[in-house]
Amino acid sequence: MIEIDPSSPKPPFEQLRSAVIAAVREGTLAPGAKLPPVRRLAEDLGLAANTVARAYRELEADGVVVTRGRNGTVIAETGDAAHQTLQRAATDYAATAARLGVDADEALAIVEAAMRAH
């Protein structure tokens, strides 16, 4: 959950930008994860829509997110082609596991077993 500290000397758009980058580094936001629409996130955080839009623009300029028009803003894939392929596969696997009702621990155990088998 992203929180904005109104008493911080750091501007709100920068707090949001930094929070998204931190979540990506921690793995909380994986490549392909969809960010909330600008207006909804602005409302949730008590910010102006232009503030959230600025943070999204700066994240896109930094290559952290990709905006796909009406399809929204998603976390960008990073690294070389092999790494990007693995990120896409992991995102697909996570979506399949969730759709099948498999929790994260069990899904990770299945991946670990598959890795050991190879």
Automatic annotation (TrEMBL):
Record-level Gene Ontology MF annotations: DNA binding; DNA-binding transcription factor activity
Residues of the HTH gntR-type domain: 10-78
Highest taxon listed in the record's lineage: Bacteria
Entry-linked Pfam families: GntR (PF00392)
Key words of the record: DNA-binding, Transcription, Transcription regulation
Family matches, as Gene3D superfamilies: Winged helix-like DNA-binding domain superfamily/Winged helix DNA-binding domain
UniProt-listed PANTHER family: HTH-TYPE TRANSCRIPTIONAL REPRESSOR YTRA
Name of the featured protein: GntR family transcriptional regulator
